[in-house]
Amino acid sequence: MNPAIRVEQVAKQYRRLAPGHRLRTLKSAFVGRSLASDAAAADRIPALDDVSFTVERGESFGIVGGNGSGKSTLLKLIAGILRPDAGRVVTDGRVAALIELGAGFHPEISGRENVYINGSVLGLTRRQIDQRFDRIVEFSGLADFIDEPVKNYSSGMYVRLGFAVAIHTDPDILLVDEVLAVGDEAFSHQCLRRIEELLASGRTVVFVSHSLALVEDVCSRVLWLDRGKVRLIGEPRRVVDAYRAAVAEAEGRAHRAVKEERERAEAATEAAADRPDAVDADVEAGGEPAEPEEVLRWGSRAAEIVTVRLLDAAGEERYHLRSGELLTFEISARAHSPQTDFVFGIAIKTPRDVDVWGTNTDLEGFRAERFDGDATVRVVCPALRLAPGEYLVDVAVHARDGAPYDYRRRFAAFSVTAEERGVGVYFPEHRWEFAGGLSIAARSST
Question: pTM to 2 decimals?
Answer without folding.
Answer: 0.59
